[in-house]
Write the structure tokens for this entry.
Amino acid sequence: MRGCLGLLFGLCVVTSAQATLDIEITGAGEHQTPISVVRFGGEERIAGQTISSVVSNDLLRTGLFKLIDPAGKAPHEPGEVRYVEWAGVEALVIGSVRALGDGRAEVRFRLLDAVRQTELIALAVTARSDQVRAIGHRIADLVYEKLTGSAGVFSTRIAYVNREGKQFRLVVADSDGYGEQTLLSLNEPIMSPAWSPDGKQIAYVSFERGHATVFVQSLATQKRTVLADFSGSNSAPAWSPDGKQLAIVLTRDGSSQLYLVGADGKDLRRITFSETIDTEPAFSPDGKTLLFTSDRGGKAQIYRVAAEGGYAERLTFEGGNNFSPRFSPDGKSFVYSQFSGGTFYIAVQDFESKQVQILTPGGWEKKPSFAPNGKLILFATESQGRGILATVSSDGRVKQKMVAQRGDIREPIWGPFLKQ
Amino acid sequence: MKKLILGLVLANLLVACASEPIEEETQAPTAATEPAATEPAAAPAETATAAPAPEATEAAAPVVEAAAMPTETSVHFPFDVDAVQAEDRATVQALGKYLSENRASKVRLEGNADERGSSEYNLALGQRRANNVKKLLVLSGATESQVTTVSYGEEKPRATGHDEASWAENRRVDFVAK
């Protein structure tokens, strides 16, 4: 069986080819599938990367696969595979690239079960020849989904703030940190980027008006609009799952409180009524409840309230202070940053069992968010005095640090699945 | 073009009477965007990086009677605390009295926090610190309209170390004469 999928890359990505990252992976999944990704026939190296190298690196970073060197073997078609030569390999990725002459290329790839000697996926993808990374990520997504049963997130994007001296840049990048695109550059702070559920807009906080103001910016057109600019601080935007409204935090009535506002900036409603700090709202996947951070009990802890307001239930009791809650995509748990004994840790807590699991060794670890498949958590940490991106698998087994060349990375957030 | 020249003349005048540098860098989002959707940032000179407070006080001197402006221009806070500390109350009250006697004078309170917390929590904390100073100023004779507040949270640290000395320096509210 042979499917054909034409990938449409509508977003024109301004890629800085020199943005190399130093990626360090530690730990491994409980079971690692031995897999071999063979160099694709006719593939070109663009900006130091090939389709097969992008696929290999994506799979490697999950910690769920053991990459086996093809050791010189280079089959590109199933007929060229001699399975007896691939003992110890469970899965095999092969493929080839054919230039179509109009700046586009057809990429054919196959995922083979080397044990049962069967074909698991056969697909042809047509795309612009220089979209090496996008094609590689898409193939890695398909391989990952076939072999693990979970959707891959290699084609998704992340957003973060890069701070360099007084300059703040709002950046979106591929989920592996490559392919940076700067959406906004200011000599004033930028905070708290938040993806719209369709991945087409980002809400964030900017100080360009002299105080914290919430903006919404389209990725496709770059058009920006002001969502909230009341006196005091306007901050912490979080989209509802249907994209029709946002939870925000305003201090116009005194201390920071949660409000809901329509995506058009209208219909403002106050949700919390405390005399204390209520901030960092996050919608549940069903849109019915909000998690937030509050110091109403004396120290910063995580609370849950119905989206229309009402009684707020305290959820965290361990550690000193707890910040920045976000739901898992299945809504069964939440991740947050725990400040305890002078150190920040990334923690997850199960709603039903109330069990807390600390996932990281501790450091300057802030602003965690789940990948849309729930398997990985992205957060900001520090390495050698610089802010960097890091991920940890949701079981805590596999950790990854991504060190960019320049600046301090802050406030990361993982974007949603994009409709193909 | 005329506007630009006028602007330059004004800038020169300002430089002449106040030695505060005019910062232009706060303008202009550099995003590759059409200039449409947002208005340019208001009053870049004001939004510029918090100038060290003593200079700001001097800069405002021509507007009001300089000699009377209290010289102490920051108050500090313990970790995760937003209440004005006992040792700072006299400072704040003196400024409140000054404002009550100089109704044309205005002050902006800039709240800051150290980096131990989330950025959003610290933005909220810096706002509460500034709000609490404002309350005490108003109790001490200032009117609401003489005092504005802003929080920079942990975004504009004066000291950048991960140590108590840096954190202590960053947990403060600056008084900036407007």
Summary: The beta strands of chain B are 74-76, 107-112, 147-153, 172-177.
